[in-house]
Amino acid sequence: MSTIRNLWSSRLRTDFRAALVVLFLLALAPLAVTNSYALGILIVSMYFAMLALGWNLLAGFTGQFSLAPAAFAMLGGYATALLGYHWQVPLAVGMPAAIMATAGIGWALGRIVLRLKGPYLSLTTLSFAEIARVLVGNSHEFTRGDQGLNVPTLMDSRLGYYYLFLAVLALIVVGLYGLMRGRAGRFWLAIRDDEIGAETRGIDVVRYKTLAFALSCAICGFAGSLYGTFSQLVSPELGLLLQTGLVISMVVIGGIGTLTGPLIGALPVYLASEWLRDFGNIQMIVFAFAVIIFARFFRTGLWGLATAWRSRPLRAAKHGPVAQGSEKTAGDAP
């Protein structure tokens, strides 16, 4: 058991260090990318990376497949916007309120839906996401419907926003790393690998699944609130199923169940999404096909391919002398 735990800890450290390298490269990106539009693309990519990390906590580390990350981003954005629009609540209060509101909704919803298993959990979260989006879109007197709500900006500098998003993204990565190293992380992995076995060993499965769901929702809600201040507008489009499809594609292509995967999956998927806009509304078709290919042939995603390529020379060096020794022994045998 200790050997398995040490192996997981070693892999997690390697994964975390690689995530820090990705974040460091992102920190250097503005030195080469000075165009305002390109910086905006990178900022939105980091927004999706936050959603991907939040969804990955639930699906990749806990084994619970939700279809509501975009809906909770929408709810987080609207929590901040509605407080400012109706009651002139400042962003310093409205943004933390978005975290608490989405975490609370996630906890309450999790207590209900996380007792379900298999496709029922996914269908329930999908139903919740669509109900939330329709309610927001049809509550014209309160939310202004499809017109959306204006949100005050935190700063005028796009470069400043870039590093703010990067700092929040780094904070999420560090926080998830700390959680996965601790008791909660071990319990989540046990639930993912064998839920019945985890329950028989005394783990409160529903409690820890609900905790993961609430944290995932809080991350998505904060990301939505932060994105609203950047775009200065929140609308029901934030909760479209297409947005959730992008998030899932990013995690699967990047590497599910890792810290680095959502980071390296977010940028290429979002860039491809922007490029595909010129060819009509075919993003979901392309990304669904990509997810099928990765799920069938490259289940560990880009991060898994990178680690496999990195470890190949080490395996060759490890087994090379053995093979040579075997040939020598066979040649010397009478």
Automatic annotation (TrEMBL):
<dbReference type="Pfam" id="PF02653">
    <property type="entry name" value="BPD_transp_2"/>
</dbReference>
<feature type="transmembrane region" description="Helical">
    <location>
        <begin position="284"/>
        <end position="306"/>
    </location>
</feature>
<feature type="transmembrane region" description="Helical">
    <location>
        <begin position="93"/>
        <end position="113"/>
    </location>
</feature>
<keyword id="KW-1003">Cell membrane</keyword>
<dbReference type="GO" id="GO:0015658">
    <property type="term" value="F:branched-chain amino acid transmembrane transporter activity"/>
</dbReference>
<feature type="transmembrane region" description="Helical">
    <location>
        <begin position="65"/>
        <end position="87"/>
    </location>
</feature>
<feature type="transmembrane region" description="Helical">
    <location>
        <begin position="211"/>
        <end position="234"/>
    </location>
</feature>
<keyword id="KW-0812">Transmembrane</keyword>
<dbReference type="InterPro" id="IPR001851">
    <property type="entry name" value="ABC_transp_permease"/>
</dbReference>
<protein>
    <submittedName>
        <fullName>Amino acid/amide ABC transporter membrane protein 2, HAAT family</fullName>
    </submittedName>
</protein>
<keyword id="KW-0472">Membrane</keyword>
<dbReference type="GO" id="GO:0005886">
    <property type="term" value="C:plasma membrane"/>
</dbReference>
<feature type="transmembrane region" description="Helical">
    <location>
        <begin position="246"/>
        <end position="272"/>
    </location>
</feature>
<dbReference type="InterPro" id="IPR043428">
    <property type="entry name" value="LivM-like"/>
</dbReference>
<feature type="transmembrane region" description="Helical">
    <location>
        <begin position="160"/>
        <end position="179"/>
    </location>
</feature>
<keyword id="KW-1133">Transmembrane helix</keyword>
